[in-house]
Amino acid sequence: MTFVAQPLVIIVGGPAGTGKTTTARLLAEHYDCPFLEGDDFHPQANLEKMARGEPLTDDDRWDWLKTVSEHASQVAQDVKNPSHICIASCSMLKKVYRDYIKSCADGLRLRFVFLHTSIEKLAARVAARQGHFMKLDMVQLQYDIMEVPGDAELLVNGGDALAVEMSDMTPAEVESYIVGRLSLN
Ligand SMILES: Nc1ncnc2c1ncn2[C@@H]1O[C@H](COP(=O)(O)OP(=O)(O)O)[C@@H](O)[C@H]1O
Ligand SMILES: O=C(O)[C@H](O)[C@@H](O)[C@H](O)[C@H](O)COP(=O)(O)O
User: Fold this and answer.
1) Partner of 124 at 20 to 30 A CA spacing, among 7, 81, 138, 154?
2) Which domains, and CATH codes, for the chain?
3) Which residue has the CA at smallest separation from atom 14 of ligand 2?
4) What is the residue-averaged pLDDT of the chain?
């Protein structure tokens, strides 16, 4: 198990099909810490909207982002969680969403890990996924609004974010790339 002195929330983001859930689960195994699936925190109205093929608006997203942030912060600080780390998946496509997640996180340390790849790869992966609410045209919309973290947002420049172009990386390679750059242990 990895122990950090200060509670830490790691959010794994990116558009649908980029590998958030896969990567977040691997990281949670590596750090031996809890993992929260961000999609489990959507209000029913959001799920129904996406199931109808309608993209969410910013107004649909704020409460969801706040809920993900607050839950992950609670889990990171929970005395029953000795690692003091919580990993959550959440698309967090725009910088303003990442800033909002941070503002709701009870002053906790955060790391935003943003996965991205080509629209062709995303489309193929989402098409192969059965029974999920996310439709192909919505993936294109996500891709169009996506803001990959850069400049001052990046860890290497003193920010909280790590951007991972994972087109040619296996899940295990993505995991070890992230672990290497977060260097928590
Ligand atoms: N690094 C990777 N390389 C190739 N395929 C991947 C990789 N990571 C995840 N996948 C596959 O892509 C699909 C979507 O992954 P998933 O983790 O559900 O993405 P998301 O949570 O971002 O929607 C799954 O079939 C998964 O096995
Ligand atoms: O992996 C996925 O299937 C999606 O990324 C999924 O998580 C969805 O996109 C959001 O929950 C909706 O929110 P956004 O429209 O803000 O991505």
Assistant:
1) 154
2) 8-179 (3.40.50.300)
3) 91
4) 94
